[in-house]
Amino acid sequence: MLSFLFKLFSNDLAIDLGTANTLVFAKGRGIVVEEPSIVAKNTVTNKVEAVGIEAKEMLGRTPGNIIAIRPMKDGVIADFEVTEQMLQYFIRKAHGRSYLMRPRIVISVPAEITQVEKRAVKDSAMKAGASEVYLIEQAMAAAIGAGLPIVEPSGNMIVDIGGGTTDVAVISLAGIVYSRSVRIAGNEMDQSIIQYLKKKYNLLIGERTAEQVKMEIGSAFPLDKPLTMEIKGRDLVEGIPKSIQVTDEEIREALAEVVGTIVETVKVTLERTPPELSADIMDKGIIIGGGGSLLKNLDQRLREETGLPVSVAENPLACVALGTGQMLVDFQLLRRIAIP
């Protein structure tokens, strides 16, 4: 009986509710769910057909009556009802489908989120079964997850490039001294690749193919060894399937604007940082995390542009979830950094 009660009360969860992926961290167990933020819904019955990995498999391949929806856009909720259903699914999955659980939930959100967007995230989590909801900024969570000493009186700079937003922050004494959030990140990179191939080759490709291209040959700075890739899509002129060979240089050109915006955001943040903290950042350098930080040579590009040491977080894809998860055992720190 005691162990059952203990289980019931130690069911707190931390959620990195991302535009591209959702990660759920369970207290005492670590990351238990890591799936795409996608829901497949039947438009005739209004029933959810699949969530996460299964729904992603359906992207661009569904019959007319099933649509694959990304309920998160630019790091915030675009479809309230679908987000609630997605959260419900992930919470149940994290708890092994137990309906008794009403966990306390900590959710990470982008820095420049509006009051209305905050309310939407909290309401969705409450309706999905939470007993209490706390929000913390993604950049702060990423810094904690990357192991930065955020409580010390020294400057720490984190760049978190997710699917929908890029959050850049300078943190000292467990507070954000200066932060910027731009709604340009991984998904925007995929869209840039789609538009580039459409314009240059009259080739139409889907989101999944664009993401694959970005991961395989995408880069932010010239590579030591040139890469090429065969891309299959539909010819917009002939209307038939077609395949082409593209180089890493072409994809770098396609991504130039998005990468340029991210670099500019980092530079602006550095310009606005108080001089004492700038000196700390000069010594420690910049840490980059999030899925977008895996773009080849992005660290090198930032190094060239800022003249500062740049390193990728140890676990870039999970650092926001890990940082959010640490709040489940450090409620004192959570109270200090939670967004009102």
How does this model look, in words?
There is one protein chain. The protein is of the alpha+beta class and 340 residues long. It folds into three domains: 2-140 and 320-337, ATPase, nucleotide binding domain (Nucleotidyltransferase, domain 5); 153-184 and 257-314, Nucleotidyltransferase, domain 5 (2-Layer Sandwich); 186-254, ATPase, substrate binding domain, subdomain 4 (Actin, Chain A, domain 4, Alpha-Beta Complex). The protein is built from twelve helices and 18 strands. The strands form five sheets. A five-stranded mixed β-sheet has the order 3-2-1-9-10, with helices on both faces. A five-stranded mixed β-sheet has the order 13-12-11-17-18, with helices on both faces. The protein has a three-stranded antiparallel β-sheet with strand order 5-4-6. Strand 12 and strand 13 (175-182) form a beta hairpin. Helix 3 (80-94) crosses helix 4 and helix 5 (138-145) packs across helix 11 (319-326). The longest helix is centred in the last third of the chain and has 25 residues, at 248-272. The chain is flat and about 60 Å long.
Give a brief description.
The protein has 12 helices and 18 strands.
Q: Tags for this entry?
A:
340 residues, alpha+beta, Nucleotidyltransferase, domain 5, Actin, Chain A, domain 4, 3 domains, five-stranded mixed β-sheet, 12 helices, 18 strands, 40% helix, disordered N terminus
The proportion of residues forming helix, as a percent range, comes to 40-55%
* CATH topology descriptor of the largest domain: Nucleotidyltransferase, domain 5
Gross geometry: flat
Rounded radius of gyration (Å): 21 Å
The CATH architecture classification of the largest domain is: 2-Layer Sandwich
Helix segment count? 12
Tell me the strand percentage band.
Answer: 25-35%
